[in-house]
Every structure is written in C-alpha cells, then in structure tokens.
Amino acid sequence: MRLRYSLTIDKLQLTTDIRKLNFGQLLNVKCQMFVPGQTLIEVVVAMAIVVLLGISIISINLVTQKSARSARNNVQATNLASQNIEQMRVFRDRKGFSALTDATCYYLANAYTNPDPNTWSLTACSGPPYEGESISLNNTTFRRKIDISTVVAGKKQVRVTVVWQDSGGAQSVLATTFLTLWCPGPVIPGSPCPAP
C-alpha cells in the first residue's frame, strides 16, 4: 500500500509519496503559513482588542448610569415644581388671594409632609443664602423656593424654582404660573368664594 500526499497549488495537482518526505518537509508542506513568533504577536493583538472592548463597555455603562441618574433627578425636580404650583393654587383658594404677598423667597411650610391645605403657611426663606425648602429624594437633596410678584392688580406671578447638585454641577428647574383674584371677597371656610 502506497501512501500518497496530494497538494493543489494554483490548480496544479502535485502528488508525492509521503514515505519519501521527512517530517520537516511534511510540516513545511502542510503549515507554510506559520512563522516563528507570529503566534505571540497574534496573542498580544487579541489581548489588546479584548482590553479595548472591555474599557469601551465599562465607559458606556458609566455614561448610561450618569445620564439615567441625571434624567431621574430632572423628572423629580419637574414634579416637585409642578406640585408646588398646584399647591399654590389650592393655597390661594383656601387662604384667599390676599394671602399671596410679594417676596423673592417663600416656601409652603407643611405642604410636602401634610396633605391638609388648612395647615399650610407661606414662610419666608431664612438666609442668606435664600434656598427655600429642602427635600431629599433618592439620595439627592432638592431645594425648592417660591417667588411671588404682582403683575397688575388682581394678578400675581408665581415662580417655583427647584435646585439640586448633579455630577455636572448645579441644576435647576423653573415653573411659572399666574394666579388671579377670580373670586373676590372674604374666604368662607370650606369654599373659596364668599356666599352670594
């Protein structure tokens, strides 16, 4: 039985008897592509690619977490500002339009912790710095303050500012509304309007 080794090079068929080839020639025929040291270079390049890929994944993860935290804080601040605007409407209806006195820094005492509007009161900010009410949510401290100014008789502008510290520095959200004297007269308990 003859052992034959067949090799195709550019469509040219070469056949030789394997018994006539020594081991070195056989390796040279089968594995012509391997050069000494080439495997080490391939391993180093592969490791570099894996390290770069790992660093990229970690960086993307950190940026995503930072963006998610910033977005969450922005949503919470917007909700706090909107909540305070609605509370100011209720405060006006319960306490009367005359209870809205002009000032650059107020906060509604008891409004965040007590849902009963009868216990709320407009309280001037202490300071300086005039930062307003402090509210902590999800390991972030928000500072909320109210600015009331008269636009014309019977119309006031209410601005609620919420400030917090983020990884990018100080951030703020501003909500503005106008409250009017829509029901003149003294306030009757249980109703925002006087009896006719």
Give an overview in words.
The structure is a single chain. This protein folds into two domains: 1-33, no CATH class; 54-180, no CATH class. A hairpin with a 2-residue loop joins β1 (4-9) and β2 (12-17). It has helices at residues 23-30, 38-95; strands at 4-9, 12-17, 103-109, 121-124, 133-137, 140-152, 155-166, 169-180. The chain has two helices and eight strands; from the N terminus they run ββααββββββ. The protein is rod-shaped, with a radius of gyration of 38 Å. 34% of the residues lie in helices and 33% in strands. The strands form two sheets. Strands 3, 4, 5, 6, 7 and 8 form a six-stranded antiparallel sheet that branches. A two-stranded antiparallel ribbon has the order 1-2. It is an alpha+beta fold and 196 residues long.
